[in-house]
Amino acid sequence: MLCAIYKTRRKEGMYLYVPGKNAFGDVPEILMEKFGTPELVMLISLDKRPQLAGVSKADLEVALKEKGFYLQMPPKAEDMLAAHRTELGLAPHVDEKR
Fold first, then answer.
1. Is 94 part of a structural domain of the chain?
2. Per-residue model confidence (pLDDT) at position 96
């Protein structure tokens, strides 16, 4: 299965996978509006890849076949200050009580 991967300039780390170059027909209009102008990152064949960018090949193929697209969201930013405060036995945020 061929897959095209697009990025957006609006949110770093967000990627849209579709089953071919410019195959946006099944992507909801509202998502395309929020995503902005898609920029092609690469065209790949999923046949030889067991996993791609943290997504299993099986999950990606199911999404592409059932919905016609897969949206990869950026990883959640780790709040290192909150983690450090918790390690010290404090509330994660200054305005919270433990």
1. no
2. 60
